[in-house]
UniProtKB/TrEMBL annotation:
Gene Ontology MF term list: hydrolase activity; isomerase activity; metal ion binding
Stretches assigned to the Fumarylacetoacetase-like C-terminal domain: 75-278
Pfam family, one: FAA_hydrolase
Family: Belongs to the FAH family.
Statement: the UniProt record of this protein carries the keyword Hydrolase: yes
Top-level taxonomy: Bacteria, Bacillati, Actinomycetota, Acidimicrobiia, Acidimicrobiales
Record protein name field: Fumarylacetoacetate hydrolase family protein
């Protein structure tokens, strides 16, 4: 059965309806409190999670209490230009292979954390984020799903001036300012979705829809990304893949638009949930 794992107070919880169940306590200590350890034991967690839901345990919570659902990944990959319509709006050629960059893990933040603006050039990118469960290297596309714990929503906030600086832009710094990687609100196992390869995702700013796409428009789908990345790097539990953003980003608009202090950014994927970040000045 599908499970949803969220983190509060540094401890892994199952989301059961509108309640949180502390995994370590409710399992009598047989499962870990640490979210990274819980991801490494995802199959055990799923087997146990059915019973926890049926028992109706847990306590009510507010989404603002949730922490980063994957707090300490060793690797956070980003994929540029992975939606056909987004590649077209940037004027770029469709890439022959995935264009991969790094979001350094220190940029990760909670689902309702403020996004701190270092400049007037910060842009939005709602993204499906893959969370690795079982590690591995040289993973076949056909077996990729067995290595995925689940999906969460991510925002790939991007400082466009830093991202595009220099003759051969490298994206990683412009996408790694502190607070530039909110994820969550929970890691949702793939069996929660009727079709995990066709999910609607939206980015709404101050109530206005800026991005509205579907993951079936991905150029390189999730199984291919897992296979290609694992051919280079051994994937480990909790590693994250930001899979790319659909069209509607600020820098492609005419005139270009960027975030201003006070803007409220809501990033949502159907069947997973919503991130809600308020932009604030850097102090
Ligand atoms: Zn992105």
């Amino acid at each position: 059965m599908a499970i949803r794992m969220a983190v509060r107070g540094g401890r892994a919880h199952l989301v059961v309806g509108d309640r949180l169940v502390d995994i370590e306590r409710a399992s009598g200590g047989t499962l870990p409190a640490d979210p990274m350890e819980a991801l490494a034991r995802w199959d055990d967690l799923r087997a146990w999670g059915d019973g926890a839901g049926a028992a109706g345990e847990g306590e009510p919570y507010d989404v603002r209490e949730l922490d980063v659902c994957v707090p300490r990944p060793r690797k956070v990959f980003g994929i540029a230009l992975n939606y056909r319509m987004h590649a077209e709006e940037t004027g770029a050629q469709l890439p022959p292979s995935p264009a991969v960059f790094t979001k350094f893990p220190s940029c990760l933040s909670a689902p309702t954390a403020d996004v701190v603006l270092p400049s007037e050039f910060v842009d939005w990118e709602v993204e499906l984020v893959v969370v690795i469960g079982r590690g591995g290297s040289r993973i076949d596309e056909s077996g990729a799903a067995d290595h995925i714990a689940g999906y969460c929503v991510g925002q790939d906030y991007s400082e466009r001036r830093v991202q595009n600086a220099g003759a051969r832009p490298q994206f990683s710094l412009g996408k790694s300012y502190d607070t530039f990687g909110p994820i969550g609100p929970a890691v949702v196992s793939l069996d929660a979705f009727a079709d995990p390869d066709d999910l609607g995702l939206t980015c709404v700013i101050n109530g206005e829809t800026k991005q509205d796409g579907r993951t079936n428009d991905l150029i390189f789908g999730v199984p291919e990304l897992v296979s290609r990345l694992s051919d280079v790097c051994t994937l480990e539990p909790g590693d994250l893949i930001f899979t790319g953003t659909p069209s509607g980003v600020g820098q492609a608009r005419k005139p270009p638009e960027f975030l201003r202090a006070g803007d409220v950014v809501e990033s949502a994927i159907e069947g997973i949930g919503t991130l809600r970040n308020t932009a604030v000045e850097r102090r």
